[in-house]
Write a structure and sequence with these properties.
477 residues, alpha/beta, 6-stranded parallel β-sheet, 19 helices, binds nicotinamide-adenine-dinucleotide, binds uridine-5'-diphosphate-xylopyranose
């Protein structure tokens, strides 16, 4: 079908990448558009099996997601490994594959690795037998659409046309379903010509079914790609700003929560993303800022690059600072001390631990000889061990030492067992259930003196101190 001559009918779409973005986003599209058949495909067979499996074992934990999957799965939402078939059958193809930081080659440690995007584009070109609208859902460096279009044209097997549009995803994990239902904005960037506009409008027609039109923003492709990186950088910037001030609060007697409240009440500043923590985690902020830094340097804008990179340096400093406080507390000798980490996920209400501050904190404590007990309500045990193994690769130690270190981690299914006989509890994730714990009972079963280091300012300090705990709270003296 020629998009120029007649209006393309969109009743079959597919999404390449069944991860934290592809799964929830497509589930919501399927729910809101019963007349569209949505297929989510992935190269990872186990993941697809899990998406097709038990609702309490889906690969992604998000409040509200399992209910939606229950309603639409095998009705108009399908999970499959048959990528070519899905491409062939769909008029619109979303790319929601991972775009991690490059580990080697040009831009190593900064630039986004576009291998998965490029492979997907090649596969689309080879499998497609009719015109396709290709949508960049992954977060990508500005001007990637140019490269995607080039790959599609170079590899296509038929005389067909491709439109590439940018539609970055702004959902946050833990609130993904709500974010998808009530997006602050939906951004759609297309080529500034008649054809590009038509492609954009096809996608807008889908979102219009539940997103008010005044929240759907149409821009050029480059603005759309860049806005995603900038949004994440500016959110992370607020966290690093408040975290940097937390260090000053600890020195001066100011209280970071009071400062954040006072500052955030200025309507020009606003109160969100001013919660001090042991450092932001997640798969996006660090990677996207590194990418922004790389792009800025590529264009010779070194001052711009340095400015944004500092956000990551402050974030690393914050986690390091928290670990150092624990070490200081034991006069730099934590050999054999038991430290209980409450929370491994990078934030509450997710099973995702990518770039979680808990990982880096635990590595430092383990390398200094501590024993680590971990409890998290959602992150799988094997994930926790993999996380530590992965970060130990960055340290120059032999396999025997790695095994020795790993043997010092114990993972528990129950928070009370995790804190039993420990010297110090470090609260790393703001899970609601940690507030509800019986802290009196915890005090009874911990070694004395019993320390709580609250890296999220989650529990009431005075309540813990009344129970007999010694405490450290981030940003409080
Ligand atoms: P993810 O790792 O959870 O999922 C990506 C999936 O793509 C994986 O399951 C992988 O197997 C699959 N994949 C890779 N190459 C493939 C190929 N050639 N064919 C088929 N499947 C392939 O990643 P994610 O967290 O969903 O992130 C995806 C993109 O969305 C990234 O660019 C990320 O920056 C962006 N993003 C993520 C979030 C978030 O909260 N996680 C939010 C907004 C944007
Ligand atoms: C982020 C963006 O918010 C989202 O728009 C984008 O699409 C993907 O990246 P996500 O990483 O899932 O989402 O979660 P977010 O709520 O942004 O939290 C990121 C990290 O910052 C978490 O570790 C969180 O605990 C931390 N954080 C957040 C703080 O330390 N303080 C805050 O005030 C807010």
């Amino acid at each position: 079908m020629d998009i120029k001559k007649e209006k393309m009918k969109i009743d079959r779409i597919c999404c390449i990448g069944a991860g934290f973005v592809g799964g929830p986003t497509m589930a919501v599209i399927a729910l809101k558009c019963p007349n569209i058949r949505v297929t989510v495909v992935d190269i990872n067979e186990k993941k697809i099996q899990a998406w097709n499996g038990q609702l309490n074992k889906l690969p992604v934990y998000e409040p509200g997601l399992a209910d939606i999957i229950d309603k639409v799965r095998d009705v108009n939402l399908f999970f499959s490994t048959e990528i070519n078939k899905a491409i062939e059958e769909s008029q619109m193809i979303f790319l929601a594959v991972n775009t991690p930081t490059k580990k080697s080659g040009e831009g190593k440690g900064y630039a986004a690795d576009l291998t998965y995007i490029e492979n997907s584009a090649k596969q689309i070109a080879k499998a497609a037998k009719s015109d396709k609208i290709v949508i960049e859902k992954s977060t990508l460096p500005v001007r990637t659409a140019e490269r995607v279009k080039e790959i599609l044209e170079l590899n296509k097997k038929h005389n067909i046309s491709f439109d590439v549009i940018s539609n970055p995803e702004f959902l946050a994990e833990g609130t993904a379903i709500n974010d998808l239902f009530k997006s602050d904005r939906v951004l759609v960037g297309g080529e500034p010509n008649e054809r590009g506009l038509k492609a954009v409008n096809h996608l807008v027609d889908i979102y219009k079914r539940w997103i008010p039109e005044d929240k759907i923003l149409k821009t050029n492709v480059w603005s759309s790609e860049l806005s995603k990186l900038v949004s994440n950088a500016m959110l992370a910037q607020r966290i690093s700003s408040i975290n940097s001030i937390s260090a000053l609060c600890e020195k001066t007697g100011a209280d970071i929560q009071e400062v954040a409240l006072a500052v955030g009440m200025d309507s020009r500043i606003g109160s969100s993303f001013l919660k001090s923590s042991i450092g932001f985690g997640g798969s996006c902020f660090k990677k996207d800022i590194l990418n922004l830094t790389y792009i800025s340097r590529l264009y010779g804008l070194n001052e711009v690059a340095d400015y944004w990179e500092k956000i990551i340096l402050i974030n690393d400093y914050q986690t390091e600072r928290f670990a150092d406080k624990i070490l200081d507390n034991f006069n730099n000798n934590i050999e054999g001390k038991i430290i209980s980490i409450l929370g491994w996920a990078f934030k509450k209400n997710t099973n995702d631990s990518r770039e979680s501050a808990s990982i880096y904190l635990s590595r430092k404590l383990l390398l200094n000889g501590a024993k680590i007990n971990v409890y998290d309500p959602m992150v799988h045990k094997s994930r926790i061990i993999d996380d530590i193994n992965n970060v130990l690769k960055d340290v120059n130690i032999c396999d025997d030492e790695v095994n020795e270190i790993i043997s010092k981690i114990t993972i528990y299914d129950n928070p009370y067992e995790a804190v039993n006989k420990s010297n110090l509890v470090a609260i790393c994730t703001e899970w609601d259930e940690f507030i509800e714990l019986d802290w009196g009972e915890i005090f009874n079963i911990m070694k004395k003196p019993s320390w709580v280091f609250d890296g999220r300012n989650l529990i009431e300090k005075s309540k813990l101190e009344k129970l007999g705990f010694k405490t450290f709270f981030i940003g409080k003296s």
